[in-house]
Amino acid sequence: MSQRYSAEDLKQFASALFASTGLEGGRAEIMADTFLQADLLGFTTHGLHRVTTNLQWLQSGASRLHGEPSVLADRGNCFNWDAEFLPGPWVVHRAIDQALARVREHGVVTATIRRSQHIACLAAYLPKIIEHNCVGFLTCSTPAEHTVSPQGSKTPLFSANPIAFCAPAADYPLLFDISMSVTAGGYVSRAAREGKKLPGQYLKDRDGQLSDDPKSFADGGSILPVGGADHGYKGAALSAMLEVLSMALSGYGRADDVSEDDEANSVFLQIIDPKAFGSERNFLRQTTALMQLWEQCESDSNDPLRVPGKRAWKLRNAQLESGVELYPSIVSDLEKLAESTGISMPEAIS
Fold this sequence. Notes:
Keywords: Oxidoreductase. This protein has eleven helices and twelve strands.
């Protein structure tokens, strides 16, 4: 039987784990809340599952405990930072706060960040943007990563290059977080850990043959781009676009020696204030109508339509009220951390 945990208890537990490395308390709390938000929204491969890795980076010095990002450029409505391997979730929240503080004046604020330690789940940053009634667009790429092969190739070139977007509507926002690969690397790793095959042939082995076996990826294979074997040229083109936005604009990526960067990210962030373009009421009238029309579309099966944001927002609200249901392997990992650090794991509430 699955167990539920208080969201606040999980946040305090993860925060204590991060603070145990010497990370300042406020930064530790932001880190913990970011991973928790991912699980609240249902993105379980990049939520509290990532605590262990981030602790290791902080303990080893791969993530900097102290300091501020260097400002490389700042024109008010756009800025570029070098994070120099500061913890990714803290840096991105810092950039979002800066953008939100400026967006009422500028209407649109765009930011790039180079050499940020891994920023985890992009969707985890969206609730803050929605709470400010803004539109948000966030993407990242990993200069040291080559996991996704272009259409027609067996050579991995791109990183997963996720993109997240949010826009206020009525009962729930339009919200999504998707990779430019057919499946995320986290799901491939989870399948390998559990000894399972993937639901479809989302991979190529090192000889370029389609595969559903995660072992083929670990043995020099690659993940297919969005669009799969037939239409992967679309996903490859989008991957290139996102690497231009995140790597080229930040000035750090494929052209550089990134052999020591591991999972560090290049980031592109844009926040838009709808009121800069006209009435907020008219904006919400349009986004609400879009979501309602989508919901009213007739399903072509017995399955309900998936409207981006509906399930995630409903799940987030339910788990904040009734407790967070963690994926079983996450519970196991957190219990190991509690044992190794002496920091008590929260008690399950059901």
